[in-house]
Amino acid sequence: MAAPVIATGLTLLVGSLLFAVLGYDPLATLQAFFIAPLNSLNGLSEWLLKASPLILIACGLAVGFRANVWNIGAEGQLIIGAIAACGVGLFYPDPDSILLLPLMFFAGAIAGMAWAAIPAFLRARMNTNEILVTLMLTYIATLLLSWLVHGPWRDPAGFNYPQTALLSAAAMFEPFDYAYRLNASVFITVVAVFLMWLFTDRSFLGYKMSVSGAAPLAARYAGFRESAAVWTGLLAGGAAAGIAGMAEVSGPLGQLSPQISPGYGFAAIIVAFIGRLNAFGIVLGGLLMSLLFLGGEAVQMNLGLSAALTRIFQGILLFFLLAADFFIFYRLRRIPEHA
Amino acid sequence: MPPRLELRNITKSYPGIIANDDISMSIMPGEIHAVLGENGAGKSTLMKIIYGAAQADSGEIFCDGKPVAAHTPATSRALGIEMVYQHFALFESVTVVENIALAVSSTFDLDALARQITELSNRYGMPIDPHRRVHDLSVGERQRVEIVRCLLQAPKLLILDEPTSVLTPQAVVKLFETLRQLASEGCSIVYISHKLDEVQELCDTATVLRNGKVTGTARPKESTSAQLARMMVGAELPEMHVSPSVPSDKPVLEVRGLTAPARDQYGVELKNVSFEVRGGEIVGLAGVSGNGQAELISLLSGERTHPNALAIQIDGKAAAHLNASERRKLGMAFVPEERLGRGAVPPHALWQNAVLTAHRAGLVRNGLVDRKQASSFAAGIIERFKVKANGPQSIAQSLSGGNLQKFIVGREIALEPKLFLVAQPTWGVDVGAAAFIRQTIVDLSRSGAAVLVISEELDELFEICDRLLVICQGQVSPPLIRTKTNREEIGLLMTRVDRGNGSNGRAEVAIQD
Fold first, then answer.
1. Does residue B336 form part of some domain?
2. Is the pLDDT of residue A106 over 90?
3. Which of B241, B247, B199, B249 shows the shortest CA–CA distance to B223?
4. Among A117, A312, B81, B102, which one is most buried in terms of CB atoms within 10 A?
5. Is residue B43 part of a domain?
């Protein structure tokens, strides 16, 4: 439990050093990065808006991570989910149907699962490495999106911009207040956190998955199928990422463009680990990660610092988390030369 | 003459437990001294302190009359103290001489070292070829490598930790000859064991430990097993009740012509294995480890499946193609040799480990784990099998090996199996608990279950089994009736040269063991 706290503290420390080296007052910059963005209602709305997909995806990924199923391609599953949902939203015959939003929800979920089913099938049947396959499929998804918005799905009335037409109102989650962007899709995340807790802490299937992760030989001894863990883990991550993609399209975006995610799928991996693969830890981890996104934007706009800063903070955070884990579980000892 | 080694008032505590409490003992040059005790009695801690791998909280160690200061394994070796561990630390892919060269602190001259090894190993009657690769060696030969490694340092005190647990009866005889020869040349030997008969045969003196304290010293050759056992356990051992078996008409487990390739390059191929186990009887499978037991067990348990479904039948149903869970539905239960990581999930609590195989016994409802049921199931096992643990919340890896074994055996027996497979049921379990586990297995079989026991301990097999099978190089012998066979016959079968399939070097070496 100590590792995420230590890692966060060290990240802040190194972050302020970084600011100092760049010639900014560390304290003021930290304030601008981590506190100022939350000083307004709009800031809070943005905070939750960005935390929501991170937490949602991390919950799905953690189901697999607990069983040592390493889905690194949530970004691609998010994109495919967004494409499928947007496709339904654009081409459904009745653009004002109240069925539209639920249909898009299922389209996103199923598309994300289908994209994740490819590595699941390959791993379960041919023992391929799911890390590589999920990662490579992410690039395919990105290029597919790019082709769609530059080609067949480009809005004819869009002044040649590479983006689709805007979705109809029935295809969008209504914001709580039109002054802010936060919308009802956060409830999906709340439900996902509960389901994740129920699955990992209470369900028998979740129990089997944790056995597969902690002791594969014991899973084999008990007769739990490894392929079941692989399928469940990848499909859970794929569904969560696909739904997150749908919620982006039906929420803040309203259309597809070549860049629809600021890396939620990758950042969610860090969120899952910061949260110790635990439902409530993931909520805290998602809020922290969301703040990193917001703070990065804030200092970019207010102080002119580079946009790469967010990624740097993410990297430092993960690095310190892994290092803290290492030093908590192992102890370094100097061994005399003549042992 | 001062004693070779003298311990005075050694005390060592770990958080929550006093491992060694005021232990004193002395060993003269050329003496073979047994340290007897149950699991958890503090033997291993004491050996670590003697060898310098752990430091005592208080107390003194004298070697040849001089106090030992700044004690580490390196200073121990400088003093001539060497240790052969129970689990060997050899690199499998390189040769004997290369392994030994890594361990001895002399100049790196392989040819000279090889000559030394040949000469020394022949002198002590346990020849080894220094240029063979370790993965080609039998377990007995590997132990020789460890012993020769120690002997090269011309030790004054040799510590052996349960050295016979992996040896055939013939190899044990050979080892004892070597140890006696060493002792006659003045080397002191500390022999750690819980096998009373061996200690009585080999050792001049014995120090008995219980709960970290010395409970007595004895001259094993002049004491009875019962006297020694009482010092170890603190009470009389319960007597085994083995009533005559009444086997069922039809076999519960039937293996017919089971042939399977080795799992990897170090594995053993199973060749045309056939046997059966009937309800109400206990069949024992004897053999030196590494002769195909691991392959056979994983095929019987369903951890590995076999394309020929009829090769294994459970209760008359084809089962070889089923996985472990499906075979358990047919009434199978299984205790594997490895507890941590196979029979139990190390970081999980005992109640979670109860769910691992007992989920059928009402511990899962509507797809959710019933924690209350699981906890009370685990608590029942803890109570019935006297598992030393702080209740169902204890983490599996915090239990001692023997206690975890009691828990796993208890869990599997609580499932009331029709077919019970058990590998090394009492491995590392203390004498009292071992007797209890054996009695429970006997009772289970007498209530109608078919039991297959895979064990390297012949004493155990002779105590509880009705029929015995011997596995050697992946082949299983025809069954022997326990009352009509003896240790020698079994021992020979364990190391036989198979003429049918052409003998290889390994088989011949096994005979020399």
1. no
2. yes
3. B199
4. B81
5. yes
Overall average pLDDT of the B65-74 stretch = 84
Give dist(CA B288, CA B290) in Å, integer.
6
Q: Is residue A204 part of a domain?
A: yes
Looking at the structure, tell me whether residues B11 and B73 fall in a common domain: yes
- Integer CA distances (angstroms), A120 to A71, A268, B214, B247, in order: 9, 20, 59, 48
Distance CA A227, CA A256 (A): 35
Number of Cβ within a 10 Å radius of residue A259? 13
DSSP string covering B331-372, please? TEEEE-S-TBTTTB-TTSBHHHHHHHHHIIIIIEETTEE-HH
B302 chain-A contacts, CB cut-off 8 A: 223
Instruction: Compute the distance between CA of residue A226 and CA of residue A208 in angstroms, rounded to an integer.
Output: 9
Nearest residue to B73 via CA among B50, B53, B44, B100:
B53
Please tell me the distance from the alpha carbon of residue A170 to that of residue A168, in angstroms, as a whole number: 5
pLDDT for A179? 87
Question: What confidence category does residue B106 fall into, taking pLDDT thresholds of 50, 70 and 90?
Answer: low
With a cut of 90, say whether residue B162 has pLDDT above it.
no
Dist CA A102 CA A88 (whole Å): 10
Share of chain B above pLDDT 90, in %: 42
In this complex, the residue of A203, A222, A338 whose CB is nearest that of residue B356 is: A222
Residue A317 lies in a domain: yes
Q: Look at residue B453 and tell me if it is in a domain.
A: yes
Distance, first Cα to last Cα, chain A:
35
| Same domain flag for B290 and B423 | yes
How many CB pairs below 8 A link A and B? 67
Contact (CB<8Å) B368/A338? no
Q: What is the widest separation between alpha-carbon atoms in chain A?
A: 80
DSSP state of B188: E
Report how far residue A38's alpha carbon sits from residue A215's, in angstroms, rounded to the nearest whole number. 43
How many helices and strands (H and E) does chain A possess? 13, 0
pLDDT tens by residue, A169-196? 999 998 888 889 999 999 999 999 999 9
Domain boundary among B233, B262, B292: B233
Residue B327 with chain A: CB contacts under 8 Å: 223
> Residue A210 belongs to a domain with what CATH number?
1.10.3470
Could you tell me if A338 lies within 8 Å of chain B, comparing CB atoms? Answer: yes
Q: Cβ neighbours of residue B443 under 8 Å, at least 6 residues apart?
A: none
The ipTM assigned to this model is 0.81
Residue A17 to residues A12, A26, A36, A267, A293, Cα–Cα distance (Å): 9, 7, 19, 23, 19
Is B426 part of a structural domain of the chain?
yes
**B495 near B170, Cβ under 8 Å?**
yes
Report the C-alpha gap between B286 and B491 in whole angstroms. Answer: 9
